[in-house]
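re: ur question from earlier - yeah i can do the single chain one, its not a big deal. heres the input i used so u can compare w yours
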Amino acid sequence: MSKKVFFETLKKELSRIEKAKTAKRFEKVIEGFTKGPSPQALIDAKPYRVFNSNDYLGLRFHPKLKEAEHVASEEFGTGPGAVRFISGTLKVHRDLEKAIASFHGRDDCIVFSSAFAANMAVLFCLIKGQAADSAVGGNTLVISDALNHRSIIDGIRVANLPKEQRAIFNHLDLNDLDRILTEKKGAFQRVVIVTDGIFSMLGEAQDINKMRQVIDQHDADFAEGIWLVVDDAHGVGAFGQSGRGVEEVFGAKADLLVGTLGKAFGADGGYVTADQVVIDYLRESAATYIYSNSISPGTAGAALASIQLVEGAEGKELLAKLVQNRESFQKQMIHAGCIFAADSIHPIQPVLLGDAAKTTLFKEALFEGGILVTNINYPVVPKGRDEIRVQISAAHTKEDLDAFVDQWKRIAKMQS
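and the output i got, formated as tokens:
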């Protein structure tokens, strides 16, 4: 009987979510994809142009990645067998880690099952330490951008720090970050500042060069210095002339860079790259690495092929095409009278509608017109900032972009 009461509680919560127009569980079931340079999703046998994917370079269908996935699976099997410290590390995983470290100009890299798992591990291990008697634990202050990704928020929560060891600076406001560091001068042994590189709802970029300048002014005020952690999951592979994300665009480096293989690189899994001593410490301390299987050998093989491709001539061509597509889309949508929620030079292009019901209407109408998009609503974005998040890919053709704009104009005319 008691369980039935709890079931009713769960039903009420589901009803609340649905009334708020923020339900996420009614995903479209994609049965497959069409062939060709710009694969379309097949839903109930109907093709849909994809404008809600993180596959910014269109690499998940690339023949080189699929071939590399097949070869690695043939050699190492379909799964890792167990966690790495128990059954050993497969060569394909180490080859991938070395390639990522080289790509970012770092000593080493550690691959996780996801970037979410990477953030959870990094933040807990830097802030708290893994063991009760760890020398790493202690008097640490963690400072987070107000709009950081949920994985960062949860990573800080899991560390279970008292309120006085946590601070939030206003979104992209480095003057506010400077204020916090000034107020906390000498009060903490170590400071960990964590931020997204690209903020996934708006496509905004954190200027980590300017952030570094603020850090340098205060670093000596703390016995173990200030550590900058940047989660550039949406930046790596999709931002900058060579795809090295905010570090390339702003000309500065994080102390620990978190990235993903599941977006622009077209595979799956997350990673952290840093100095050797930091990576060695994480291999000894990160629970989501030690006690969780790594990505499959096939996925690692595909990711390795992707890194190599992005570093080559084809990668440069795809990155240039991505910029061209994004600029063309912006120009057409502005001409159509659209307002963007942010001035983004990233493939994430948020079209501001300002109302949850309106975003739902546009999303459904675009779907009827053969286009997949995602509506982003409160509380993911502030009230009144509801948007359609459009994600541009290098794989999009001119016909794809024109079709989107034509459908948008049709819907907007119906609403006027």
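Residues 63-311 form a domain with the Aspartate Aminotransferase; domain 2 fold (CATH 3.40.640.10). not sure if urs matches, ping me
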